[in-house]
Design goal:
This protein is an all-alpha fold. The protein has nine helices and no strands. The radius of gyration is 17 Å and the shape is globular.
């Protein structure tokens, strides 16, 4: 069953859509404040579909991710009472939020940078930064540097790999897809 190959081909078609940059911007913004899907899932195929525009796509992703992070920050400042039940209802978000609060006390603005670069749920840290009353300018700078490093790294690796990477990915996409599904199942079982 070649399920992931078909999905991969579909994503590459979407990545070439004339409005793909707008969708990437929207996904980048929402992921930084409330949406669970990271923009890398759209950034990578867009860079594969059009390697000459990879840095442009990374810039869009970075800018809108930081803007979304600012929105998350203001959710933390002004609307935490509204999102607290959502965080408490999701054990992984609750754990990440508690970790974020603890880390803010220990490392301050460096936490935002680390969350921006890593696969940790950045949105939790943006909201926690607002709740903790972190200064806005250092928050934005750490977000810009962290998110920029992450997204430009993705774009540059794909641009560098080019057609070879696309061919290799196509060859192994079924294995990668099923490994990802297995990892999600294991994480779900372990977290319960």
């Amino acid at each position: 069953m070649r399920m992931f190959s078909k999905m991969y081909d579909k994503v590459l078609v979407w990545a070439k859509h004339r409005r793909a940059s707008y969708y990437l911007a929207g996904l980048s913004f929402t992921e930084s404040s409330f949406f669970p899907v990271p923009p890398d899932v759209m950034l990578a195929p867009m860079c594969l579909a059009n390697p000459s525009r990879a840095l442009h796509f990374a810039m869009i992703t970075t800018i809108f991710s930081v803007l979304g992070g600012a929105f998350g920050y203001f959710i933390g400042v002004f609307g935490f009472d509204l999102v607290e039940p959502i965080i408490q209802a999701n054990p992984s978000y609750q754990s990440a939020y508690e970790t974020a609060v603890r880390w803010f006390g220990e490392w301050g603005v460096w936490v935002v940078f680390i969350a921006g670069v890593s696969p940790i749920p950045y949105k939790v840290f943006t909201i926690a930064a607002g709740v903790a009353g972190m200064a806005l300018v250092p928050f934005l700078l750490a977000s810009l540097i962290g998110r920029g490093l992450r997204f430009f790294a993705v774009a540059l690796v794909i641009r560098w790999g080019g057609e070879r990477m696309e061919t290799t990915l196509r060859h192994y996409i079924e294995y990668i897809g099923w490994l990802l599904v297995a990892a999600i199942v294991v994480i779900y079982v372990v977290s319960r």
